[in-house]
Amino acid sequence: MDTKFDSYFVVKAKENGVNVIGLTRGKDTRFHHSEKLDEGEVMVVQFTEHTSAVKIRGKATLMTPFGTMETEED
């Protein structure tokens, strides 16, 4: 296993329709994957050689190696 990209975090949806969007690495940052979570659903996310950033839309709790945080309301 390549430990260079073994950073994980957890997203727990606090409402229906939370979007988890993966963004690519490289010269141009682009969307490459999107998931929609319903309230209570949990997704374990990993940074990889293709995923350099993740965008979260909607009310969710994020649990990372750096601590737990909540998305802010509009």
From TrEMBL:
Oligomer of 11 identical subunits arranged in doughnut-like structure. Keywords: RNA-binding, Transcription, Transcription regulation. Pfam families: TrpBP (PF02081). It comes from Melghirimyces thermohalophilus. Residues 6-72 form the Tryptophan RNA-binding attenuator protein domain. This is Transcription attenuation protein MtrB. One of its GO terms (biological process) is DNA-templated transcription termination. GO terms for molecular function: RNA binding. Signal peptide: none annotated. It comes from the Bacteria. The keyword RNA-binding applies. Belongs to the MtrB family.
